[in-house]
C-alpha cells in the first residue's frame, strides 16, 4: 500500500489520542452530611430514606449513640421490631440506665 507523502506527514503530526479515563467517582458523603440527611428524611416522614442514611452514617461511625436511637425509633414505628431491637441494644450498651431505651428494647423483644 502506497501512501502519499502528505498523508504520511499528516499522520505523523496528528496528536496521539488522549487515553480514555474512567468516569469521575462521585465523592462519598461525609458522616455529618449523612447525619443531616437522615434527620431531615426522618422529620419529613421519609422513613426508608432516613433508614438508609442512618445506616450509612452508622457504618462510618458505629459508636454514634444518637444515630442508633434514631434508627431504632424509625424502625420501631414501621413495625420492624427485630431491626429496632438491635439498634436499642447498641444504645443500652452505652446507656444501661436509660429506662426508655430499655422499655423499647423490651417491647421489641416481646
Measure the end-to-end span: 85 Å
User: How much helix is in the residues?
Assistant: 55-70%
DSSP strand tally: 0
Largest sheet, strands/sense/barrel:
none
* Unreliable spans: 1-12
CA gyration radius, whole angstroms: 27 Å
Given helix and strand content, the structural type is mainly alpha
Mean pLDDT: 83
Output the number of helix runs: 6
- N-to-C series of helices and strands: HHHHHH
Percentage of residues in strands? under 5%
Identify the overall geometry: globular
Question: What does it look like?
Answer:
The chain is mainly alpha-helical and 110 residues long. The protein is built from 6 helices and no strands. The protein has helices at 5-13, 31-43, 47-60, 65-77, 81-94, 99-109. α2 runs antiparallel to α3 (47-60) and α3 (47-60) runs antiparallel to α4 (65-77). The longest helix is centred in the middle third of the chain and has 14 residues, at 47-60. The chain is globular. The relative contact order is 0.09.
Describe the secondary structure blueprint for this structure.
Layout: H1 5-13, H2 31-43, H3 47-60, H4 65-77, H5 81-94, H6 99-109
Helix pairs in contact: 2-3, 3-4, 4-5, 5-6
Q: Which properties best describe this structure?
A:
0% strand; single chain; 6 helices; mainly alpha
Brief overview, please?
With 110 residues, the chain is mainly alpha-helical.
